[in-house]
Recover the amino acids of this structure.
């Protein structure tokens, strides 16, 4: 099962589906919506798993939510579409940047939730496919 999932991630990276600005915006929006929908459960899980107070858990949750929002706000679909078609329009594109393809995130056990969401949102915004590697000792 794991090798099949990894093969799917590799296929997504190879076909470049994560490079579209509209796909990246959609994925960040879905992530944000999932975080909002599960806010209460996420905050309780953070508190229970880390031993933090509910106030500390809410703070970590809000920082993670802000990280997603900040990455989404950096995406400018109009500018990115202009950049994508520069070469087709006979212009240089020497400042073009592309994602690595596949990013593996191994979060810290301290503020585990934030340590997953912040780099996850940055990797998605950059056009990467992402694998999150969480060890059993993190829990």
């Amino acid at each position: 099962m794991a090798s099949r999932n990894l093969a799917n991630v590799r296929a997504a990276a190879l076909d470049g589906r994560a490079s579209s600005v509209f796909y990246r915006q959609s994925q960040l929006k879905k992530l944000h919506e999932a975080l909002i929908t599960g806010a209460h459960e996420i905050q309780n899980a953070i508190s229970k798993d880390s031993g933090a107070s509910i106030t500390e858990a809410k703070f970590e949750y809000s920082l993670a939510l802000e990280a997603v929002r900040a990455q989404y706000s950096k995406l400018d679909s109009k500018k990115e579409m202009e950049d994508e078609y520069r070469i087709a329009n006979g212009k240089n594109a020497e400042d073009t940047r592309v994602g690595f393809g596949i990013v593996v995130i191994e979060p810290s056990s301290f503020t585990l939730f934030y340590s997953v969401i912040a780099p996850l949102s940055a990797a998605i915004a950059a056009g990467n496919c992402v694998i999150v590697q969480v060890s059993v000792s993190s829990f």
User: Anything to note?
Assistant: The chain has one domain: 2-138.
